[in-house]
């Protein structure tokens, strides 16, 4: 079963269970996927859907921090609930050790010699880490690894 089919089935299950919070989050996710398909005029594979989910998660993280800074815990809690629903569709996150090993391998594969080669390293890592790690944190780790070169 494709990821999109699984999300659609979960939407139907949420409808039957009258789980309005989960249903709303799944509908938001399906709308984002549909919008991306319309924009690109093509059906999306699981990897592209994971990229959309990852983008939605990042938007929610940003919203949560802004809502909490503004003292709107009710809205922050709603965003966190949506993130919990979205997280169910992402692959298992990598551990710090696994991320460090992939960064080390990517630096060796690209023969990166300094900060100027960061784009090469990110290009190698992005497909491997999509949906499995926070790319902002990975970027910081790459910078610290390349700073020592």
From TrEMBL:
Gene3D superfamilies: 1.10.10.410, Uncharacterised protein YqeY/AIM41 PF09424, N-terminal domain (1.10.1510.10). Coiled coil: none annotated. One of its GO terms (molecular function) is carbon-nitrogen ligase activity, with glutamine as amido-N-donor. It comes from the Bacteria. This is GatB/YqeY domain-containing protein. It comes from Microvirgula aerodenitrificans.
